[in-house]
Structure formats: structure tokens, C-alpha cells
């Protein structure tokens, strides 16, 4: 029998490696931006065409490369970052494995132009499908320009798995924003289809966040700062009232490298416990600095996962740092934080002698001595100010309780046998429990209605009728309101703008992801913040998209009904409860919300009787 194991050709091996490192255009963007940062550049341009499928170009003013390095960088595992295996545990740069350019060159046409500052002529290298096409001298500015053209042109199966241009652009923008946040000291520009869409000058971290997500973030963030022997935590956390309905603005960096960690994300969410609703997610931008030998970044092809030597300590440090920051700014109760010192874990010195704790004992102490037994450690006499004759006032007898004579008030403590009939005669059929549930008697017992879910169902069916009949009622705003959104949310709003206009919104786009709202649905006329309504609709839309709901109209109807519905905690009058209940039972499906959650529950008399056995 002949041998069956053979070595793969280099071209096939490179394509397999490319499948691990370059999953979509955003993966190539991430690798190219990281290489530009490692070159020492302080100005980086990203140029995209057709969602990265046609062109991805990164231009930097970094150190550049020599002609030999320009050719060698396209070989697999060619890197200047490490020389031996032990160097993997002292990595402080971004790209270090030497796979990115080799992987891109295997599945695209890559053109590189580079020049060092001390050289007059630069170098141009063209590689296509892992084959060197040409290498020639060229005239170019200091730094490096890399163009990746026709990504996955020789692997059509993988190219067919790419999404639409809008989806790919959204992923590219996410990578661009992550790198921009991690390096606010670098100027970034983003060109899309020959248009400059984003420009971030050098700034402090908070200003960079505001440049990306909107100027209103200056008031939404509180600083987080904690330094320990294990890790140093810096950054910002969003105030609880601005928590989102989807996991969008959650950024965690370790040594300026963006990472994903459900375990550490849970630490931040625990710091916000009891301050935000269960279905909301906090906003945070946290940077962790630790020694390189305490982490392993070489555990995932995209280097977005990191292993810590002891994640439990890091978990507690992050949780405490965020909680202290919220407490320091009076966002959460500050009793536990004002006197708490830095959360630190001192490392014991193995050469230091162990000293047992000492205990001081007073050999003359006698608990039965009248002179010493009544004194505390500080010498205070606990019985000095006691007046034993006044304790009766704390427990008044029945004869001491004042009563009003002749008013008949004492009858209110007696339950009349006909109390239920009297209540019905007064027309009082509803009452509110904890500003959350509407309680009303029914023939078989009593019914509890969730007021928020009931209003969601009522609004959903009303909006659906408006959309079908194109009969939405609008309320013109006295002063139109401008709304500034980030690129991701603005893209979602553009997709749903036609639908929400049919539902009563008068909204138009200006420039720079800014929209002007001139009218709102009639049910929204009393809402104090139009921007919060639009942001809430976009957040719910993002959540619905992640749940793979295909009908855009249904998504918009669900999002609007969720955002506009009255919330738990709102007190309702009897008339409002009556109107809401009548509207609910006029719906086609009053028992469930548009998401399929129960709206009401009936508790029978038999179930109540079982409670009293």
C-alpha cells in the first residue's frame, strides 16, 4: 500500500492559514491597522471600497521598511517581534506571528509601497495569490501603504459567504473604532467609497470617545481608576441611567489590545447590580495594564482572547474599581466606598519572618466589679446617662393611646360583610399593586395585568393598523430637535427611517450622522426627550436583529411599542387603568406581548383557598 500522508503545497497551506486569520474584510482591516501602529505611526488612514471586497488600503507615516524587509514580510511566520518561544510571554506589540500579510497575499492582490526616513527611494512589492509579481523602486512618502484588492478572488466559496456591503462596512467600522479608542494619541481617518466619513484628531481618551459616539457622552461617563500590584484599571463607565438594551458599547482592553471575555464582562455587570434593569447592559471603556508575563495572548488566531494567570483576582479588581467609581460620583450608595482603601493584593515576601498577631489582655479586669464591669474599652460608662424611669414611654399601654370621640372613626377597623358590594357600587373595579400590576376581580377569582406588557400589546396593534391603513397620527414639534448618533446606530436608523415615517415620525437626515425630528406620533407628544425615544427604538432594533427576526416592519413595531409603553413604577389613576384594560381586551391577542410573553394571570378562588390552609 502506498503512502497517504503528503506535505501540502505552500499555496494551499497559506489559504488554510488565511481562513483562520482573515475571516472577512474586517479581519484584514484589524491586522493592517495593528501593523501600522507597531510601525510607530502617529497618523493612519483607512480607505475602503465596496465594503472591503474591492479595496482595503491602510496608509501610515511610520518607520517604513527596507527593500529586503518589504519582500520578506510576505513570508509566513516572518516577524521582527519575537526571536524565541520565551518572547511570547513578553509581547507588548500588536501583530507578532507574521501570518497576516502572508494570509492576505494568498487570497488577494496585495500592493505594498514603503520608504524609510533615511532613504531617498522607496520600494514597491506586488504579490498575488502568494506569488511575487514584481518588486521595484518607487517614489513614495515616508511610511507604508498597503492595498488589498479583490479579497477572496481565488476562493469563491469563501467570498460567497460574505454578507452585504452594509453589513461588512458595519464590521469594518467596529474594528476601526476599537483601534481608535485604544490609541487616542494617534490621528485616524476613515475613507469610504472616496468619501471621508470619520476623522479623529489626537485627543485624550474621553474626547476620543465623544468624537466617536457623540458629544453627549461627556456627561454620560464617570472615570474609573484603580492601581494594584496585579493590574491597573483605567477608563470610563457609563452612568446607570444610560444603560443600553443591547451589548453595543462595551469595550475591554488589556495592554491596549481589545479582548472579548464573558467572565470579565460579568464583573462589570455585577458592579452595576441593582442599579440597572435586568435586561439592560452598562456602557464601559476599560483599559487593563499588567505585566506581559501575567497573560497569554497567543490563544486565538485573531488574538481577541487572553488568558490570565489568575482571572479571579482580576475579576474582583474590575468589579471593585467600577463600583467605587460609581460610588465616588454619588451614582450608587457611597457608604461602602468613601472609606475603603484601594483594592490590593499584596504579594508576601517569602524571606520575611512570620510574626503571629499579638493579643493584649488586662489581667486585672473583673466583669463583676462595679467600677470596671460597666466601662467599655474606651473607659466610657454605658450606664451613666440611663434613666430607668422613662422606658415605659417606649411601650404605651392601650389606655395611653389617644382616641377621637364622637366621630365614628373607630368603625373603620371593622370589616363589613357587604364591603365588596359597596366597592362595586362606588365603581372602583381596579387598583394598582406596587405601581406595576393592575388587579381586578373576575368571576373565578382575580386577574393581575402587567401594565407595561399590556400597553406594549395595545400600542403594537395600534401601530400595525396605522401601518396597514397609512393613517398614522402625528404631532408637530414646536421646536425641531437634532439627534446625533454614532455610525452604527445611524445605519440602523437609515434602514428603518421609511417605516417610522409611516408611523408618525417626521425625521430627516442632515450630515455627519445627525438627524432632525420635526414630528412624532401622537402617543409620543408627552415624552420629554425625543432623542431618548429614537435611541431606545434603535437599541431595540439592534436586539431584534441579533435575534434573526426577518420582517423589518415587525421589528420596528416591536421596538416602538417597547420604547413608548408605560413602564413599571408609573402610578395610574382609576380612569387610566380602566382605559388600558378596555383597550387590551379589544386587541386580537390580549394574553401575550408581541414577543410572546404573558400579559395577564388569573388567580382562582381555589388557589387562594389553598394559601389559607
Short recap of the structure:
By secondary structure, the protein is of the alpha+beta class. It is built from 16 helices and 22 strands.
Quickly count the domains.
3
What is the residue-mean pLDDT, rounded to a whole number?
A: 79
Q: What name does the CATH topology of the largest domain carry?
A: Heat Shock Protein 90
Number of strands: 22
Count of helical regions:
16
CATH homologous group name of the largest domain? Histidine kinase-like ATPase, C-terminal domain
First and last CA, distance: 82 Å
CATH C-level of the largest domain: Alpha Beta
Large-scale geometry: globular
Q: Indicate the proportion of strand residues.
A: 15-25%
Secondary structure topology:
Layout: H1 10-21, H2 25-38, E1 43-49, E2 55-60, H3 67-72, H4 100-107, E3 109-115, E4 122-128, E5 131-138, E6 143-149, H5 156-160, H6 165-182, E7 187-192, E8 195-200, H7 205-213, E9 221-227, E10 232-238, E11 250-254, E12 257-258, H8 262-271, E13 284-289, E14 295-296, E15 307-308, H9 311-328, H10 419-425, E16 431-433, E17 437-442, E18 445-450, H11 451-469, E19 474-484, H12 487-502, E20 506-509, E21 514-521, H13 530-546, H14 552-564, H15 574-585, E22 600-604, H16 605-611
Parallel strand pairs: 1-7, 11-13
Antiparallel strand pairs: 1-2, 2-6, 3-4, 3-6, 4-5, 7-8, 9-10, 10-13, 11-12, 14-15, 16-17, 17-18, 18-22, 19-21, 20-21
Helix pairs in contact: 1-4, 2-6, 6-7, 8-9, 11-14, 11-15, 13-14
Amino acid at each position: 500500500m502506498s503512502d497517504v500522508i503528503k506535505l501540502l503545497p505552500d499555496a494551499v497551506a497559506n489559504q488554510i492559514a488565511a481562513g483562520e486569520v482573515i475571516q472577512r474584510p474586517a479581519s484584514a482591516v484589524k491586522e493592517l491597522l495593528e501593523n501600522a501602529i507597531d510601525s510607530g505611526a502617529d497618523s493612519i488612514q483607512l480607505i475602503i471600497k465596496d465594503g472591503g471586497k474591492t479595496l482595503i488600503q491602510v496608509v501610515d507615516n511610520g518607520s517604513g521598511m527596507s527593500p529586503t524587509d518589504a519582500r520578506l514580510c510576505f513570508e509566513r511566520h516572518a516577524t521582527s517581534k519575537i526571536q524565541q518561544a520565551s518572547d511570547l510571554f513578553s509581547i507588548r506589540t500588536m501583530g507578532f506571528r507574521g501570518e497576516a500579510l502572508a494570509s492576505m497575499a494568498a487570497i488577494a492582490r496585495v500592493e505594498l509601497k514603503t520608504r524609510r526616513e533615511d532613504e531617498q527611494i522607496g520600494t514597491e512589492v506586488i504579490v498575488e495569490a502568494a506569488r511575487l509579481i514584481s518588486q521595484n523602486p518607487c517614489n513614495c512618502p515616508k511610511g507604508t501603504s498597503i492595498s488589498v484588492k479583490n479579497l477572496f478572488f481565488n476562493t469563491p466559496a469563501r467570498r460567497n459567504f460574505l454578507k452585504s456591503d452594509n453589513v461588512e462596512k458595519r464590521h469594518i467600522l467596529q474594528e476601526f473604532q476599537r483601534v481608535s479608542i485604544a490609541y487616542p494619541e494617534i490621528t485616524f481617518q476613515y475613507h469610504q467609497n472616496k468619501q471621508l466619513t470619520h476623522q479623529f484628531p489626537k485627543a485624550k481618551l474621553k474626547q476620543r470617545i465623544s468624537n466617536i459616539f457623540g458629544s453627549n457622552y461627556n456627561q454620560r461617563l464617570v472615570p474609573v481608576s484603580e492601581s494594584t500590584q496585579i493590574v491597573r484599571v483605567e477608563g470610563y463607565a457609563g452612568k446607570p441611567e444610560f444603560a443600553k438594551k443591547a451589548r453595543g458599547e462595551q469595550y475591554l482592553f488589556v495592554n491596549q489590545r481589545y479582548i472579548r471575555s464573558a467572565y470579565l464582562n460579568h464583573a462589570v455587570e455585577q458592579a452595576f447590580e441593582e442599579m440597572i434593569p435586568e435586561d439592560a447592559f452598562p456602557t464601559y471603556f476599560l483599559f487593563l495594564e499588567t505585566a506581559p508575563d501575567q497573560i497569554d495572548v497567543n490563544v486565538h488566531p485573531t488574538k481577541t482572547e487572553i488568558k490570565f494567570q489568575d482571572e479571579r483576582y482580576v475579576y474582583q479588581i474590575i468589579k471593585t474599581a467600577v463600583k467605587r467609581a460609581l460610588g465616588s460620583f454619588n451614582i450608587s450608595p457611597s457608604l461602602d466606598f468613601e472609606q475603603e482603601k484601594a483594592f490590593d493584593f499584596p504579594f508576601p515576601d517569602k524571606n520575611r519572618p512570620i510574626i503571629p498577631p499579638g493579643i493584649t489582655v488586662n489581667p486585672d479586669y473583673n466583669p463583676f466589679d462595679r467600677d470596671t464591669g460597666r466601662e467599655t474599652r474606651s473607659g466610657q460608662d454605658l450606664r451613666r446617662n440611663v434613666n430607668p424611669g422613662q422606658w415605659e414611654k417606649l411601650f404605651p399601654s392601650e389606655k395611653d393611646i389617644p382616641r377621637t370621640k364622637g366621630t365614628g372613626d373607630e368603625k373603620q377597623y371593622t370589616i363589613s360583610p357587604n364591603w365588596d358590594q359597596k366597592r362595586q357600587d362606588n365603581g372602583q373595579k381596579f387598583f394598582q399593586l406596587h405601581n406595576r400590576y393592575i388587579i381586578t376581580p373576575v368571576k373565578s377569582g382575580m386577574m393581575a395585568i402587567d401594565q407595561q406588557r399590556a400597553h406594549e400589546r395595545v400600542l403594537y396593534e395600534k401601530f400595525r393598523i396605522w401601518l396597514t391603513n397609512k393613517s398614522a397620527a402625528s404631532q408637530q414639534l414646536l421646536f425641531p430637535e437634532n439627534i446625533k448618533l454614532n455610525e452604527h446606530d445611524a445605519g440602523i436608523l437609515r434602514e428603518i427611517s421609511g417605516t417610522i415615517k409611516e408611523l408618525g415620525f417626521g425625521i430627516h437626515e442632515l450630515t455627519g450622522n445627525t438627524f432632525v425630528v420635526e414630528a412624532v406620533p401622537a402617543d409620543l407628544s408627552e415624552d420629554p426627550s425625543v432623542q431618548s425615544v429614537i435611541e431606545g427604538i434603535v437599541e431595540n432594533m439592534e436586539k431584534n436583529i441579533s435575534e434573526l427576526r426577518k420582517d423589518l416592519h415587525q421589528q420596528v413595531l416591536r421596538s416602538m411599542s417597547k420604547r413608548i409603553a408605560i413602564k413599571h413604577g408609573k402610578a395610574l389613576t382609576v380612569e387610566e387603568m380602566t382605559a388600558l384594560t378596555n383597550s387590551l381586551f379589544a386587541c386580537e391577542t390580549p394574553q401575550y406581548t408581541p414577543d410572546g410573553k404573558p400579559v395577564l394571570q388569573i388567580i382562582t378562588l381555589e388557589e387562594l383557598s389553598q394559601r389559607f390552609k
